[in-house]
Amino acid sequence: MILLSGISFGFSKIQLIDYKKINEGLFRKSIHYKYNLELPESDVYQRIEKKSLIEDIFIVTSKENPNNSEPIIVINNKKVAFADLPGKIKEIQLSKDEIDAKFIIFFLHIHRDIKMSFINKLRKQLMDIGIWKVTYDVTPCNPKFDSRYYGDLGLSLRLPKLQSDSLDFQEIFEKYHKGRDIIKIKPLESGFCLFNETLIESKDLKEKYKNQMIENQNNIVKFYHNKNLDFSAYIRIISDLLVVVHELRDMYSINKYLKSYDMLSNYEEREMIRKKYPLLIFEMKD
User: Are residues 150 and 46 in the same domain?
Assistant: First the structure.
């Protein structure tokens, strides 16, 4: 009885909270209220476990000015000028202790329609200050829920140095990769791409690459960018290539060791399969 009367007294002093207004206020502060942020889809992703190490970088476009598709960089709910990004990254690194600073996960949330011409400039800027790996925010293909439901899924990739078919590059290529077959992938507009100069629909790329890998695993992919390539199309191609390699590694591992590749605990076994089905991608300037 004493407990109940105490609770009744407590409630009599509390004003009702307007949760609707609170939710509206939170939404207005969210990145999705002011900016366009539709994520690319990928069949390959990992769940980010060390959330305390995540630093979010948003690359979005404005909802307030739909005629301006210029990418906007947002960190901690504030716009960051492109030229100021290295300084902001350094500021983030210095705010961490020495050990954590080495393992920061730079989580890039990039609007799917942003062109790779901008993304490549951004990635070069990150590499110039010593960042060689990032995690891209992605949504599973054919998602059942809104993309915000999958907030802790990401595709972690090393940042590539864009190459050109110069004489210097050809000499290096011949020195270290002589004898490997070259697979050229050139995405085009309207859902098509060139696969070794053969025009195919982009949706058929995965099957085409898998057949090529089964025929000859000793190959290298030259993935040619063009300035009109959307970030979503870029992630789609990378995802398709990764899926093929994972499928072939799994198939071989199950046949030989009766378990999937990811379940192998023996380093030598994993390394042997990885070398048998490698994924070597050179990202090229078109």
Answer: yes
Pair (145, 208) in one structural domain: no
Tens-level pLDDT at each residue, the chain (286 residues): 443 333 333 433 444 455 554 454 454 457 888 899 999 999 999 988 888 899 999 999 998 876 777 999 999 989 999 999 999 999 999 999 988 988 999 999 999 999 999 999 999 999 999 999 999 999 998 878 776 777 789 999 999 988 887 777 777 777 777 788 899 999 997 889 999 999 999 999 999 999 999 999 999 999 998 888 999 999 999 999 999 999 999 999 999 999 999 999 999 999 999 999 999 999 998 7
Do 31 and 135 lie in one domain? The reply is yes
Do 240 and 144 share a structural domain? no
With contact defined as beta carbons under 8 Å apart, do 205 and 183 qualify?
no
Domain of residue 76, residue span = 27-158
Distance CA 42, CA 153 (A): 10
Q: Cα separations (Å) of 271 from 84, 243, 257, 274? A: 41, 18, 14, 5
Question: Of 11, 21, 88, 17, nearest to 55 (Cα)?
Answer: 88
Q: Are 204 and 126 contained in the same domain?
A: no
Domains held by the chain: number: 2
Same domain, 231 and 206: yes
Q: What is the pTM of this model?
A: 0.85
